[in-house]
Write a sequence for this structure.
């Protein structure tokens, strides 16, 4: 890289400074040093130029060390934030897995309930058919028909209640599955941000 040569004035003296930085940056550094020297001279006018220059150097070095310390602290904070973020991502992934597992369980329970509802509906249809047959042949069977019909009607009502309960349970599981799906989408959106 080319060396830039810049003429600057520090404490009233012209200096030729060569550096890799551009002219504006070199001038900025020289003005900063000149300003610091003027501040020292105002604060302690009895100091000779050498002592003022040394004190200015000490002050600038002190500021430099302070900045280095701040940079190190910021680096630690950034590292800790990255670690925390990494842990949060792991927690979100675990939560994803839990939600997916619960969705699968809910789907499985809904499928089981649908099978039970279908079986109950088949049984119900069969009992209805039996009742109709008994009612049409009621005269031949005799007085026991009423008892059998009533018993079957009670069983049909029981079946209807079971079907209603099973349908309610299926609806409840579908609602839970829907809520789990919403939670899953919400978690997915959070991690994508």
């Amino acid at each position: 890289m080319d060396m830039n040569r810049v003429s600057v004035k520090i404490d009233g003296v012209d200096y030729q400074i060569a550096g890799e930085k551009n002219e504006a940056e070199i001038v900025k550094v020289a003005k900063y040093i000149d300003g610091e020297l003027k501040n020292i001279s105002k604060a302690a006018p009895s100091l000779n130029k050498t002592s003022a220059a040394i004190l200015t150097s000490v002050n600038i070095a002190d500021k430099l060390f302070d900045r280095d310390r701040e940079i190190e602290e910021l680096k630690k904070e950034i590292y800790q934030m990255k670690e925390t973020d990494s842990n949060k991502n792991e927690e979100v992934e675990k939560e994803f897995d839990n939600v997916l597992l619960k969705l699968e369980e809910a789907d499985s329970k809904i499928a089981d309930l649908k099978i039970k509802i279908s079986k109950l509906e088949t049984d119900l249809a069969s009992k209805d058919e039996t009742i109709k047959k008994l009612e049409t042949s009621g005269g031949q069977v005799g007085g026991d028909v009423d008892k059998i019909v009533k018993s079957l009607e009670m069983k049909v009502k029981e079946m209807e209640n079971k079907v209603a309960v099973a349908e309610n349970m299926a609806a409840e599981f579908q609602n839970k599955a829907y809520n789990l799906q919403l939670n899953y989408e919400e978690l997915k959106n959070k991690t994508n941000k």
